[in-house]
């Protein structure tokens, strides 16, 4: 499998999808909003973008299955197999509120291991890409994680949970601790962009729980190929389908100490 060639094709597909998102954002009406669950928003834009991506990826690699946020394929994926893992619009709430921080995320994984991934930010026209063993790139230029090794010199990204609030106190304790030890924390509203920014050194680390595989499949590969470390909250590698992730540069060990101290 020529992962470099496949990744180039994914970039084209993601860029086309991003152009569609911008087109639809210019004429979007909030009457199109649907609710999948508590605070879990979706629109025709998410669904139509996913359909377009799936159709093109099916031609690119017919043997791969699909794990998608909107479930437009109707497939029940085998998580141990070769799968495309897709978020057609990561940052739907931002999109709906006309906040220009959203992205297209397309990952290819063999079981639990992402092997190719692309995150496209149409608002900044930045295409982040990586493939296993090939390094990480933004618009074709090599990127790497920041040189920071201490929390005291770091800027950390996270996300705010919008469901499953039973672990909120543990999360807030982590937040409180990091507020006092870092240059600050940021919440962009798109986990894919958070991870891409870790990969290119804008953020020094990112952590979040209650994520899905499509939120991170492309991003965790980007961070690893850019020289960073990615684990779950226990320090293991079950993050893709478990839903909690810590990704970072040299600050990862210190950040893990804080997470483990409060995450029970």
Automatic annotation (TrEMBL):
User: Which reaction does this enzyme catalyse, per its entry?
Assistant: a myo-inositol phosphate + H2O = myo-inositol + phosphate
Q: Report the leader peptide range.
A: none
| UniProt keywords, alphabetically | Hydrolase, Magnesium, Metal-binding
- The answer to whether the entry has keyword Nucleus is no
Q: What class of enzyme is it?
A: hydrolase
A Gene Ontology biological process noted in the UniProt record is:
phosphatidylinositol phosphate biosynthetic process
What Gene3D superfamilies does UniProt report for this protein, alphabetically?
3.40.190.80, Fructose-1,6-Bisphosphatase, subunit A, domain 1 (3.30.540.10)
Record's PANTHER family?
A: INOSITOL MONOPHOSPHATASE, INOSITOL-1-MONOPHOSPHATASE-RELATED
Q: What is this protein called?
A: Inositol-1-monophosphatase
Question: What is the species listed in this Swiss-Prot or TrEMBL entry?
Answer: Spirosoma pollinicola
- Record lineage: Bacteria, Pseudomonadati, Bacteroidota, Cytophagia, Cytophagales
């Amino acid at each position: 499998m020529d992962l470099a060639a496949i990744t180039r094709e994914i970039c084209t597909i993601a860029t086309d999808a991003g152009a569609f998102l911008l087109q639809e954002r210019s004429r979007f009406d909030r009457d199109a909003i649907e609710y999948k669950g508590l605070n879990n928003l979706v629109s025709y834009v998410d669904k139509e973008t996913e359909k377009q991506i799936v159709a093109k990826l099916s031609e690119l690699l017919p043997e791969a299955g699909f794990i998608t946020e909107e479930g437009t394929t109707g497939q029940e994926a085998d998580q141990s197999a070769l799968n495309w893992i897709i978020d057609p619009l990561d940052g739907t709430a931002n999109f709906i509120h006309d906040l220009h921080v959203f992205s297209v995320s397309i990952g290819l994984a063999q079981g639990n291991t992402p092997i190719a991934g692309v995150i496209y930010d149409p608002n900044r026209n930045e295409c982040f890409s990586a493939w296993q063993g090939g390094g990480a790139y933004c618009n074709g230029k090599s990127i790497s994680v920041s040189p920071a090794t201490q929390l005291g010199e770091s800027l950390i990204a996270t996300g705010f949970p919008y469901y499953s609030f039973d672990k909120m106190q543990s999360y807030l304790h982590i937040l409180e601790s990091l507020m006092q030890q870092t240059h600050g924390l940021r919440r962009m509203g798109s986990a894919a962009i958070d991870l891409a920014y870790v990969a290119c050194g804008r953020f020094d680390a990112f952590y979040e729980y209650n994520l899905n595989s499509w939120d991170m499949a492309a991003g965790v590969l980007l961070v690893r190929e850019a020289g960073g470390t990615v684990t779950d909250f226990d320090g293991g590698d079950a993050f893709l389908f478990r839903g909690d992730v810590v990704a970072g540069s040299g600050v990862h060990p210190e950040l893990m100490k804080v997470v483990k101290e409060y995450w029970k």
